[in-house]
Amino acid sequence: MASNAAVPFWRAAGMTYITYSNLCANMVRNCLKEPHRSEALSREKVHFSVSKWVDGKPQKPTIRTDTPEE
Amino acid sequence: MAMAALRREGRRFAAPLISPNPVNTFRSSLAPTEEQAFGGIRGISTQAVRNRMKSVKNIQKITKAMKMVAASKLRAIQTRAENSRGLWQPFVALLGDTPSVDVKKNVIVTVSSDKGLCGGINSTSVRVSRGLHKLTSGPEKENKYVVLGEKAKAQLIRDSKKDIELSMTELQKNPLNYTQVSVIADDILKNVEFDALRIVFNKFQSVVSFVPTTATILSPEVVEKEAESGGKLGDLDSYEIEGAESKSEVLQNLAEFQFSCVLFNAVLENACSEQGARMSAMDSSSRNAGDMLDRLTLTYNRTRQASITTELIEIISGASALEG
C-alpha cells in the first residue's frame, strides 16, 4: 500500500498487482550501486514457453525469455 | 596331435547324427560357436558376455554421475525451497486454506518437471490432479487444467486434453526465481477465468519422501463471499488496513499476491522433490547395475573355468592315449 493515489491507475492500465509489484521491485533493483545492481538484475531472469489450448489442441507456443518485466 | 584333430573332426560330423551334443550341454549356452572352431582356435567364445558386462558397466557409470548431479542440485535448491515457505505461511494465517470450498470454476494447476528419470513424482501429481478434477466436477461446473512442465502435459494429454487451458514448459532453464514465477502467475491470472485455483505439487519432506499437496487460492469475489459468511475469513475485518482503498480492492491485491507466492513455493518444492526423487532413483539403478554386473561376472568366470577344464581333460586324455 505504498502509494494510494497510484492504485487505481495501474489497475486501470490493465496491470495486475503482480505486474505492478514486479515493476516496483525492478525499479528498486535499478537503484542499487553497481556491483550489486548487475548481480541483482542477472539473478531475475525469465525464461519459459507458454501455449494456449483451444479444443484440445495446443496452439503455437510463445517463448518468453529475458524479459524481467513486460 | 593328429589323433586329437581327427577326434575333433569325427565329433563334428558325428554329433548331429548320434547324440545332441553332449559336450555343449554342460557348457554355457552362450557359446554356440565352439563347434565351428577351426585349427588352433579353441575354447568357448565369451565375447557376448564381455560385451554385456561392458555395457552394464557404462550404464552404471552414467547413473552414478546422474546421482551426483542430482545431489548437488538438490542441496542448492533445498535451502531455497525451505526459505520460500515463509512466503505463503502468513497468507494461510491471514486467509486460511480452504481446500473444501465449493465453487463453479475450478482451475487445477498441476506442477511437474520437464525431465524424466525422477521416479513417480510426476505421475503422483497427475493422479492427484485427476482425483481433484473428479471430486470438484459436477453439473454446471467448469474444471480446467493449467499444466506446468512437460511430463504432466504428456500424461494429461491422453485422457483430458479437452480440459487443458494453458501449458507452460522450460521453466528451469535459468535457476528458479520469483520474478519468473510471478510472470507465470500473471499469465495464468490474465488468461484463465477462475473462482478457485488449486495448485497440485509435491511437497518436499526429505530426500525420500514427497507429499502430494494441494493449495487453494480463491478469487477475490469468492473470498469476499466467504468473509461475509464468517469463519476464519471473517476475521479479516479485525485487521486495520492502511490506505483508503475499498475492501474488495485490498482482497484482490492480496489474492493475486498470494497466488504468485504460493506458486513460487510450489514450483520450488516440486523442483526440490524432483531432484530428490531422481537421486534415489539413480541410486537404486546403480545398485541394480552392480548386481547385474556381479551375476554376469560369475557366469563369465564359470564359463572360462569350464573351458579350461575341458581343454585340460582333452590334453591329458590325448597324452595318455599316445602313451597307452
UniProtKB/TrEMBL annotation, chain A:
<protein>
    <submittedName>
        <fullName>Uncharacterized protein</fullName>
    </submittedName>
</protein>
From TrEMBL, chain B:
<protein>
    <submittedName>
        <fullName>Uncharacterized protein</fullName>
    </submittedName>
</protein>
